[in-house]
Design brief:
single chain, alpha+beta
Length: about 300
Amino acid sequence: MLHPNAHLQSAAVPQVQPSGPLQTVVHATLPCSEHSPRNRRRAQDLAWEWVGAKWPRLVPLARDQGQQQIERNLHDHALRVNTSRDGRVWTLTVMHSEKRSQRIWSTRATVTDTGQADLLDIQTACSDAQHAPMVVAPPKLLGAWVDQLALDDAGFAVLGEARDVTDTAHIEAFCAHVLSERRSLPIIALAHKAQSRHFGVDPGGLALAVRGLAHVACLSPEVAAAVPAILGPGSTVVHGTARIFAPGFHARAQHERHPLLRDKRPVDAEPSADPGSFRRLIVRHVCAMGVRTLAAPRGLAH
């Protein structure tokens, strides 16, 4: 099986030069349920559509998009496409300068035929991540892959919508997914009070924001109360909060690796006061988990 990051170093674009090293801020690697040339072609087409929507002048003519090597450069953004000699790894890299700052952003999308599956990998990195305010969010290409291709995580479909966990059968499937050693994406568990559907964050909006980076599960009060008996005390889900189960969770897991996040707005804050702040907090944590998964060996105990 080819490693998903094979041949990526050759995809660097030297014409847009960062002032320092690039730091990865978003990363996801997911297999497709379908394994076919048509599926890989569709993944590449979606990448081209994403580039065309943001930087249309970087997109070559359709007849030239199948070339093994493509390089296009403008004054503040550049593109490089590389196809491995055996045709099994296709990599598209875009680098661009952020307006009104010196920061350089790089997004690298890879479509790989591993022999057993079609593997999609996306990685966003930037320079000067420590010294200027930054909004971290997954590129829209990842959402397009989720919406239009069948992506899989340990037997669970990767979706842009939240799953309801409301009865005994759902509890068993939910806990099995949390404990799965094959799972590569975090699971965000939300809960609400009885007689209320308030989760502290809009589940649908959150699921769209993290599609391809995490699963979102909406637990009923009865399910939330029953889960700790199966998963242990570090699995408590409180209404209005978000428990994030990172990959590798087990009953004796270190709690800080699977945090219970709370809305940091004051309790007496108006509901209309920056309602998206809690969602952005969750997204930042999920992005950080994806980067740590990239750096950590598989099978490392959590």
